[in-house]
Specification:
Blueprint (H helix, E strand, L loop, with lengths): L2 H9 L8 H13 L8 E7 L4 H6 L9 E7 L5 E8 L4 E9 L7 H12 L2 H8 L11 E7 L13 E8 L11 E10 L4 E7 L37 E4 L2 E4 L2 E8 L3 E10 L5 E16 L11 E2 L1 H5 L19 E8 L5 E22 L6 E17 L2 E10 L4 E9 L4 E2 L9 E5 L2 E4 L1 E11 L5 E11 L12 E7 L17 E10 L5 E8 L13 H5 L7 E5 L21 H5 L8 E13 L9 E12 L21
Antiparallel strand pairs: 1-2, 2-3, 3-4, 5-6, 6-7, 7-8, 9-10, 10-11, 11-12, 12-13, 13-14, 13-23, 15-16, 16-17, 17-18, 18-19, 19-30, 20-22, 21-22, 23-29, 24-25, 24-26, 24-29, 26-27, 27-30, 28-29
Bound molecules: copper (II) ion (CU).
Copper (II) ion binds next to strand 23.
């Protein structure tokens, strides 16, 4: 081994992000095996993350074994191959066919579908009934949607999508302004064939364009003065490969085609020299957008934007000064194209620091001192464009030990055309001739907690109002009521704002300086819903993860995604409901918290034609993890901030 190779090997970590070279080597090994078919497509090629015990034993300088996990689609049938390749050794470690499942929607097939549909005579006839002639076909935008499961015959044994259409006046026009209402095409993605053209009847195209482009606005404001974010001495974080250190925090950044940004091994370097683990792995494991309108054109819409499209696959490059301001560090993400070529999304992840108002303050009216400290957060984010919607995922690390995930919802709502002057039953009118069906955006965060070590327990903490009695003579008494969640089924819980409910993840072995067990608490944000669709509905079963806010499981390496590995056209009950049916113990074990949260979206006129950001998320706060405010050592930003 040369000196240069030694250095590289020493620096490498088993969780470093996948490289283009590794994608090429893994694909070459798979192709050389002779087991691939001519038109085989790669649904995903990802780093096969080492098992937790292997990671725990690894130390710098150890040989790093790199494995790649590929999901391969050999043909049009409903099956995939899961292969694991040891790229160092050049061998295929496993090759397993999985029958009866569909991969994520493949972009290669979706692109082919558009051409095929545009040439189909029945489709052209349906357009003609709406005054859209064949010479306008280039203006017709076709959006393939994941089909869900609704008992149509064409669903059986096929990988299908349901395609809906919109009319653009120009190539850059907002097509969503003019839904071609009533028209759905059922499409066999695997065989590139139209299965059915369904016309539920003509609704006139809405009369108006709905542009959000600068050139189409009557005037722009002229009174906004510039804000410059400068850090003349550079940022306060350090980056080596995918390893990040900022203030006392450290973690590793990775990127998955479905989950998008993944944070590994989040830890805190305490003042006594200990590196204290908090989360082993954190990501969005799944999300779903169930629509609440039974209309035949909209009632089947239930996009699993992580599992059916891929939050990582739909990520677009971020632009300096636009998406993120200030001293930015970008991480590129390396995925694989469906043809097995390295696919690098440049500037996929943005990291920077933000001033966040005050951290703490006190004016001592007796002593005359006045102290205030500025809060600052490290932001690690990416933005996914899933068709009409944008989802920004922003992880924040704070100086006081808080960790927050904020999801920003923006982009364009999924609209319907209506007869002007009518009022739909399950949609809000948002423009002349345009309504938006009621819907939810439900996310699931998989949080593999390791608070001060692997063995943790979880308590539900409710504020409890005490009854009148000798202990409560003034009727004012209340206290926290802690209930330990013992098993998977009893740990399926809901947010309760009235009880100020939080969940506390506790290390029963570790103690703070007061002798209390160390902990972090999960704090829901306001108006966190569960799914409104009936539990027995198609989406209720397919996205059961959204029926409860909280789920807890004992760690298992193959339990990764809340609705299972293959939610596309899956009838349901996979993922969390299947695993937790075992009702395993979640007490004093290496537990994983699965938190479902989101928004119920009754669309406003103000959400049109492009939606100002709506926010959702959650916060993780230390609770006795420290002995006192851990941010007393944050210096004043200016001399005049303390006296
Ligand atoms: Cu919405």
């Amino acid at each position: 081994m040369t000196e240069q190779e030694m250095t590289k090997a020493e620096l490498a970590h088993p969780l470093e992000m996948l490289t283009s070279d590794e994608v090429e080597r893994a694909v070459a090994i798979l192709r050389d095996s002779g087991r691939m078919t001519e038109g085989a497509l790669f649904a995903s090629v990802v780093l096969h993350e080492p098992a937790k015990d292997v990671l725990a034993q690894w130390k710098p300088g150890d040989r790093v074994e790199r494995r790649v996990r590929a999901v391969i689609v050999l043909g049009p049938e409903c099956e995939v191959v899961e292969a694991i390749v040891d790229v160092g050794a050049g061998v295929i470690e496993s090759w397993e066919g999985v029958a009866g499942v569909r991969p994520t929607l493949l972009m290669h097939e979706a692109a082919l579908a558009i051409g095929t549909i545009r040439a189909h005579p029945e489709y052209l006839a349906a357009l003609a009934r709406r005054g859209i002639t064949a010479d306008m076909i280039d203006q017709v935008q076709i959006d393939p949607w994941p089909a869900g499961v609704f008992g149509y015959e064409c669903e059986d044994g096929r990988r299908i999508s349901r395609c809906i259409s919109f009319l653009r006046e120009t190539p850059t026009d907002n097509g969503y302004a003019r839904p071609i209402e009533g028209l759905i095409v059922h499409f066999d993605n695997g065989r590139n064939a139209v299965l059915e053209v369904i016309d539920h009847g003509v609704t006139p195209l809405p009369p108006n364009r709905a542009s959000y482009l600068v050139a189409d606005q009557p005037r722009m404001r002229t009174d906004l003065k510039p804000i410059s974010i400068t850090q003349p001495e550079g940022p306060s974080f350090g980056v080596e490969g995918n390893f990040v250190q900022w203030q006392k925090w450290q973690f590793r950044v990775a990127f998955d085609p479905f989950e998008g940004l993944v944070l590994h091994q989040i830890g805190y370097n305490d003042d006594d020299g200990r590196l204290r683990p908090i989360l082993h792995r954190a990501s969005i494991s799944e999300m779903v957008v169930p629509y609440g309108d039974p209309d035949p054109l909209h009632g089947w819409k239930n996009a699993f934007d992580a599992g059916e499209w891929g939050l990582g696959r739909m990520t677009q490059s971020l632009r300096l000064g636009c998406d993120c301001l200030g001293e930015i560090h970008y991480f590129d993400a390396t995925l694989a194209s469906e043809h097995g070529k390295p696919w690098v999304i440049e500037n996929a992840i943005c990291m920077h620091e933000e001033d966040y108002g005050i951290l703490w303050k006190h004016v001592d009216l007796w002593g005359g001192t006045s102290e205030v400290r500025r809060s600052r957060r490290l932001v690690v984010s990416f933005i996914s464009t899933v068709g009409n919607y944008e989802y920004g995922f922003f992880w924040y690390f704070y100086l006081d030990g808080n960790i927050q995930l904020e999801v920003k919802l923006t982009g364009i709502v999924s609209p319907m055309a209506i007869v002007p002057g009518t009022t739909p039953a399950f949609a809000n009118v948002i423009a002349e001739g345009v309504a938006a069906p009621h819907h939810q955006h439900m996310f699931n965060a998989r949080l593999d907690f390791d608070v001060d070590g692997e063995v943790n327990e979880i308590y539900e903490v409710d504020a409890e109002r005490m009854p009148p009695g000798p202990e409560n003579p003034w009727l004012n008494a209340f206290r926290p009521k802690l209930t330990r969640l013992e098993t998977e089924l009893s740990a399926q819980r809901e947010v309760d704002a009235g009880a100020s409910r939080t969940w506390r993840i506790v290390n029963p072995e570790a103690r703070n300086g007061l002798g209390q067990p160390t902990a972090y608490k999960l704090v829901p944000t306001m108006s966190t819903p569960t799914m409104l669709a009936h539990p027995d509905s198609s989406v209720g079963r397919r996205a059961a993860f959204a029926q409860h806010n909280l789920w807890v499981t004992p760690y298992a390496p193959d339990e990764r995604r809340a609705a299972g590995e293959y939610p596309n056209q899956h009838p349901g009950d996979d993922g969390l409901p299947r695993w937790t049916a075992q009702d395993r113990s979640v007490a004093d074990t290496d537990l994983v918290v699965w938190y479902s949260f989101g928004v119920t979206h009754f669309v406003r006129p103000e959400d049109w034609p492009v939606m100002p950001v709506e926010y959702t998320g959650f916060t993780l706060m230390p609770f006795g993890f420290f002995d006192r405010n851990p941010a007393l050592d944050v210096p004043p930003s200016e001399a005049r901030c303390h006296s």
